[in-house]
Specification:
By secondary structure, the protein is of the alpha+beta class. The chain is about 55% helix and about 10% strand.
């Protein structure tokens, strides 16, 4: 169920549609505007004056990205005509006449021939480019706040969504592709800041978070690398889906192996290796139309020279290009993240290892492109909030991780 703010924006979009579809004086116009006003008054009564921003398809209220309005069609349409900001005063409260004028002005801006750079100030409303009603230094600060909000988009919400996806698949359900694609869309927005690429990667507070945060990180890195390699946007998104699901076979690995606070035995490592085959099986059976994800799940640990890695192949052959991209990103994030048996590697050491393994474990050309990406992209790592799941496979992972790490700590202290 949408909150009051999201409901208002949805109703505003409906009012703009009615303005376009119906002639002047038609009751549908008035009905839609009245509904939008009612929703707006609820928002203003709840939180006072409000500021919306529309950037690259994202809706931001204040500096919070509204993940509940992903894919809202009016955000890119408004931004495209210079309506990147909409500010609404709460004193005095807007009237039906005020809402009518706002809808008319927005409708005119959406039409042909309007000045897209102009700021429009009405009674209680202002809209226009990002810097409406702000001094230059205030504009810079506001823009920075909003872009920082975009960069933080995937944090807790996306990690929680990936955790839920894992739970659904572990419980025997089909791969929830709509949710997978929504997460990938959000991650794709998070790595773009105007014409630059940023890498707002996730860090972990507890070791049971690794599987979900790693999936998000590899998806972001893979899409950034796809852009660096010149892949089309559609191919980049398909790669993002495959990267997000590359480790899904781990839902079939024993939990105590997955979160063991130390190096794995040979038997345990063999169990861990099964996640590639199990992932391919799960995705082949439950994600129709996403064969690329199955291929990547199967191949992302196969070495470039086919002399190492897993699973072993009866007939040596080159891996899919997408698998080679994900392999590089998977290895980079795995080494850059703190693990139970070692600290995170510094970036320089990780890059050095990738370059050393180029042509052996990983594709040399892809490593070269990845290093170029890292040279021009800003990388940050922020810990996702520790929100333990309440049920499902993820809850088992969290509970087992806590128990095993407490036992390891007690043994170390003894």
């Amino acid at each position: 169920m949408l909150n009051a703010t999201a409901t208002f924006l949805t109703s505003l979009g409906q009012a703009l549609s009615a303005q376009h579809l119906y002639q002047d004086g038609h009751p549908m116009r008035e009905t839609a505007r009245r509904r939008a006003l009612e929703c707006l008054l609820d928002v203003l009564g709840e939180r006072g004056a409000i500021r919306f921003s529309f950037l690259d398809g994202a809706v931001i209220v204040g500096t919070r990205v509204m993940t509940e309005l992903k894919g809202w069609e009016w955000a890119p349409r408004l931004a495209a005509v210079g309506v990147q900001r909409l500010e609404v005063d709460s004193v005095p409260m807007p009237t039906a006449s005020d809402m009518e004028i706002l809808v008319q002005e927005l409708h005119q801006r959406l039409g042909h021939g309007a000045d897209h750079g102009a700021t429009v100030a009405l009674r209680g409303f202002r809209f226009g480019p990002l810097g409406v009603a702000t001094a230059p230094d205030e504009h810079d600060q506001a823009a920075g706040d909003l872009l920082d909000a975009l960069a933080q988009l995937p944090m807790t919400e996306e990690a929680s969504a990936v955790r839920w996806i894992h739970d659904e698949i572990a419980a025997g359900g089909d791969v929830p592709l709509a949710e997978v694609e929504a997460v990938v869309h959000s991650l794709a927005m998070a790595i773009h800041r105007e014409q630059a690429i940023v890498l707002p990667l996730l860090d972990i507070k507890t070791f049971d978070q690794y599987t979900t945060t790693h999936s998000c990180n590899v998806a972001m890195l893979s899409m950034g690398l796809a852009e660096q390699l010149g892949l089309a946007a559609a191919d980049s998104r398909a790669l993002g889906v495959a990267a997000l699901l590359h480790d899904i076979g781990k839902v079939r690995v024993p939990v105590e192996v997955l979160v063991k606070p130390g190096r794995l035995t040979e038997v345990e490592f063999a169990q861990m290796q099964t996640h590639t085959v199990e992932g391919a099986r799960l995705l082949s059976a439950r994600a129709r139309g996403h064969g690329l994800a199955s291929v990547v799940a199967y191949e992302h640990h196969v070495w470039e020279n086919r002399e190492g890695g897993y699973p072993s192949m009866a007939y040596a052959r080159p891996c899919h290009y997408a698998s080679r991209i994900v392999h590089v990103c998977d290895l980079y994030d795995a080494l850059s993240t703190r693990r139970p048996y070692r600290e995170a590697w510094p970036r320089a050491r990780t890059i050095g290892m990738l370059q050393q393994q180029a042509g052996i474990e990983v594709d040399a050309e892809i490593v070269h492109a990845f290093v170029a990406l890292l040279a021009r992209a800003e990388e940050t790592r922020a810990a996702v909030r520790d929100e333990a799941p309440t049920s499902g496979w993820s809850a088992d992972v969290a509970a087992t991780a806590r128990q095993l790490h407490e036992e390891a700590a007690a043994d170390a202290a003894a």
